[in-house]
Write a structure and sequence with these properties.
By secondary structure, the chain is mainly beta. The radius of gyration is 18 Å and the shape is globular. It is built from one helix and seven strands. It has one helix spanning 58-67; strands spanning 8-14, 19-23, 26-41, 44-57, 73-86, 92-105, 117-119. Strand 3 (26-41) and strand 4 form a beta hairpin. The chain starts with 7 loop residues before the first strand and ends in a 29-residue tail after the last strand.
Length: 148
């Protein structure tokens, strides 16, 4: 049986500096990404912002901690991860986070850091599993070729 696909790619800006933790000798960063979208409704331009919680482990976490700061535009590639827990008052809680597998710093140089691409492909995770990113080849078509 083939595996299902769980892949997400987003471009956005960090809403805060990454929060670093060391868990049993493994580096972990948590960060939030704001993703903006503009669209038209009856001739009026509308703006929409979505916020996504992200996490990264190992060497990738160390790189993010060092180079990614609040306001920095990044491309995040990873997978969705569903988490559940019981709150202090006994309610079932849940949220979906992005398990970051690759990150690319975008935009110009700020604060002396340079744009670059960083991957978790050499990192082992406490919960297991990582994947490598392969760029999508340009099929040479245009948006007009799309059926939707």
């Amino acid at each position: 049986m083939a595996n299902d696909l769980n892949k997400v790619i987003l471009i956005g800006r960090l809403t805060r500096d990454p929060e670093y933790k060391n868990i049993n000798g493994n580096s972990l960063v948590n960060f939030s990404l704001a993703n903006n979208r503009s669209y038209m409704v009856q001739g009026n331009k509308k703006e929409e912002t979505n916020y996504f919680e992200c996490e990264a482990w190992g060497k990738l976490a160390d790189v993010i901690r060092q180079y990614a700061t609040k306001g920095k535009q990044v491309l995040v590639e990873g997978r969705l991860k569903f988490e559940t827990w019981d709150s202090n008052d006994g309610k079932k809680m849940s949220k979906i986070r992005i398990f970051t597998e690759n990150l690319q710093l975008l935009g110009g140089n700020t604060g002396g850091s340079s744009a670059g691409s960083y991957s978790s492909s050499e990192t082992s995770y406490p919960e297991g599993g990582s994947s490598s990113f392969e760029p999508i080849e340009d099929a040479g078509g245009t948006d007009d070729d799309m059926p939707f």
